[in-house]
Amino acid sequence: MIQRTFYLLSILLITISCNSSFSEKEKEEYRVKGKEIAEASFLALSTQLTEQMKAGGPAQAIPFCNQKAMPITNELSDKFKATIKRTSNNLRNPDNAPSKRESEILADFQKMKMDGKQLSPIVELDANNKKHFYAPIILKANCLVCHGKLNETVNIKTDSIIKSLYPNDKATGYAEGDLRGIWSITFKNK
Ligand code: HEC
């Protein structure tokens, strides 16, 4: 009798744990959603950035990013019912600081990149059953006016504007193709 109860209990437990896990089908669904959100966010930020750069160069675009990057991603967070964040292990804005899990993923991506491996987005469930999407952010040539090397792509004037707004800036010295950070998207539970 005891054995039988035990047997039934373990079946019940297995069923429950399987139900709360993340099926491959669901993972794929969130991978697609995550990519869509990251692309929309990138587009929103880069469209506005390009406009500001055309209108007034880094002197106008940097203060614009300083004031508008967060509100732009927050607005999209509401639209997509997900928290949208950009983070890095070489921060410019301290408000974008990584969580423990984000730091681990940044380190993993960095290592994979150094080993010459292909980076692809990660979808996972956390201990609170929240679904997360993480994807690499790779620097393009046009990012280097504000994230590249001083006196190569970043001029003195740009550097001083960055330093005045972000005295602890660590986000320069990069080259095209470098890993700049990650998108971290947390889906709100339905
Ligand atoms: C005109 C200057 C400028 C250009 C060009 C620029 N950035 Fe930035 N970047 C900034 C500023 C300023 C911030 C801080 C924004 C904020 O306060 O959130 C920032 C922040 C970031 C962050 C968030 C992490 C952190 O360190 O705070 C990422 C990721 C990032 N930039 C990637 C890029 C990529 C990729 C490109 C090219 C597609 C790019 N940037 C082009 C100025 C620039």
Automatic annotation (TrEMBL):
Limits of the Tll0287-like domain: 44-186
Source domain of life: Bacteria
InterPro entries: Tll0287-like_dom (IPR021796)
Protein name: Tll0287-like domain-containing protein
Taxonomic source organism: Lutibacter maritimus
